[in-house]
Description:
By secondary structure, the chain is α+β, with helices and mostly antiparallel strands. The chain contains five helices and nine strands. It has helices at residues 3-33, 81-95, 115-124, 139-149, 192-209; strands at 50-53, 58-60, 68-74, 101-107, 132-136, 154-156, 168-170, 173-177, 183-188.
Amino acid sequence: MTHRSLRYILTALLIVVLLGGLLMARGRRTQSDARPLEGLGDFGTVPDFALTDRSGKPVTLSDLKGKIWLADFIYTACQDTCPLESAAMAQLQNDLKSDGFRLVSFSVDPERDTPAVLARYAELFHADSARWLFLTGKKNDVYRLVQDGFHLSAIPIADDSLHVDGAVFHDAHFILVDGSARIRGYYESNDAAALKRLAADAKKLLAENG
């Protein structure tokens, strides 16, 4: 190998290292500058729905008209994120004691989560039946609402190799909705700082709502 060839190779390696460093630095800067999908934005409107509450009472979007409400997606057989989500919702129920505020938990396992099953689950978290709804219904209706209405994920896991029984992969965000059914923010349900921002944003909407 000639000295000139060696020099070319070393120069090329140096360029690769420098470019790699620049890309890593840019990636870190972009990540740190990126704002989470939270805050009082406008992320579309929740479409109409017709589901059933844990009491057996039918509930539609119009029942929430004029209310500020918080949505999440759970299922009662879940042993992972759902109990944590529901515990956080219970805390928000206590922190946001306003007649203009509602909490709405949609089951992503509606075939097993009958109203009676949801009622027992709700009792575990001391859910106020007047302020915290637990909704179930036809599977296609629920999944269309989750995916097309809230733009989130809910996918049954059918892989027996995972050794799960009826598990559902689903998004664990909380979604803040205003009195006109507009989605105003998405919040990580397992992030304490995000939940503080959620509470502050909900209070702001409640104040604006009069």
